């Protein structure tokens, strides 16, 4: 796959990507994580998905809560 590019991603698109990210195979999931990093400016984006407690969420946070946090914290 080509490296992810910077797009004008809407909050709704971010939410859709986060809600579906765990359904992908590992290589695709890595690409989408990198895509979100590029498009949100969050260098620690993986923490949001895998270790939500490191970004101020409960470890049992839902993907919806994680998506909302990513949207709130994006630069």
Q: How would you describe this protein?
A:
The chain is mostly helical. Helices cover 56% and strands 0% of the residues. It is built from four helices and no strands. The protein has helices at residues 11-20, 26-40, 45-50, 63-73. α1 (11-20) packs antiparallel against α4. It is globular.
Q: What's the overall geometry?
A: globular
Q: Which percent band covers the strand fraction? A: under 5%
The structural class is: mainly alpha
Q: Uncertain regions: pLDDT < 50 for 5+ in a row?
A: none
List strands and helices in order, with pairings.
Layout: H1 11-20, H2 26-40, H3 45-50, H4 63-73
Provide tags for this entry.
75 residues, mainly alpha, globular
Give a brief outline of the structure.
With 75 residues, the chain is mainly alpha-helical. It is 56% helix and 0% strand.
